[in-house]
């Protein structure tokens, strides 16, 4: 099969190479799928750079989530059969950026029938992250104000839709007028272009000085620091990631004085510690998708030959929504 391989670490455009590789074979508890679609995720970028918490042995094929058609299954796999359309995580070293991929049965779920391949492939990591962060960690309530950073990106766009589905007033922060249009189309009640406006001032004004009840922050660094200036009494700041490049140092005395909580979210741990909750989350996301409350924003559908370019543009921060490798593109 053809697949993108990373044999050395660096920027995606420099280290991803399209090559002919041996077809994967399923081990116990695994399955092989024909890849239908696989979106670029920031963990793919970080793995290429050698900066992710998971550091696969070289060479490997990136593509941490995907939608595929089951080709074969290993020993002990009984819940799926060849021909099933499924979504879930790619099992390294055979991730989703190839014609075939390997998956673990324990983290594989039926693909929602109401979403096409590219949309379905994008429902797993970003939306599960958003659901666990907003509902399990922050207990977002109807009527609360939710501030979402990078609201036009992959995880941010999911948080905007999930926040609206939960009945929150959503403030989306983006960089640039085109991304502002996207955030508004996703349903954000208020959109702030950080290039021209101060989100701290906007949040304080719209809430009468109270601030945001929940902050969803996949950026970190200065974005986190500024968010502490507009967090409400008993507010919750969700630490999702550090796409801005700097891991902030939280001032715990400030959290004490202003009476807010700082909540970390490592969604991958739920697969290890509480897999039943992951299955519950998937069922809830499918319900929301079937009702039309959520739908992954797929901005680009790329053929296999253009995947490295898409991953690099994600790394550079110039993409909007989900950039997806789609086998039929």
UniProtKB/TrEMBL annotation:
UniProt EC number: 1.-.-.-
GO molecular function, one term: oxidoreductase activity
PROSITE patterns per the UniProt record, alphabetical: QOR_ZETA_CRYSTAL (PS01162)
Gene3D superfamilies (alphabetical): Medium-chain alcohol dehydrogenases, catalytic domain (3.90.180.10), NAD(P)-binding Rossmann-like Domain (3.40.50.720)
Domain Enoyl reductase (ER): 11-325
Record's keyword terms, sorted: Oxidoreductase
One Pfam family in the UniProt entry: ADH_zinc_N
EC top class, as a word: oxidoreductase
InterPro entries associated with the record: ADH-like_C, ADH-like_N, ER, GroES-like_sf, NAD(P)-bd_dom_sf, Quin_OxRdtase/zeta-crystal_CS, Zn-ADH-like_protein
Keyword Oxidoreductase (UniProt): yes
Annotated PANTHER family: QUINONE OXIDOREDUCTASE-LIKE PROTEIN 2, SHORT-CHAIN DEHYDROGENASE/REDUCTASE
Protein name per its UniProtKB record: NADPH:quinone oxidoreductase family protein
Organism from which the protein derives: Nocardioides eburneus
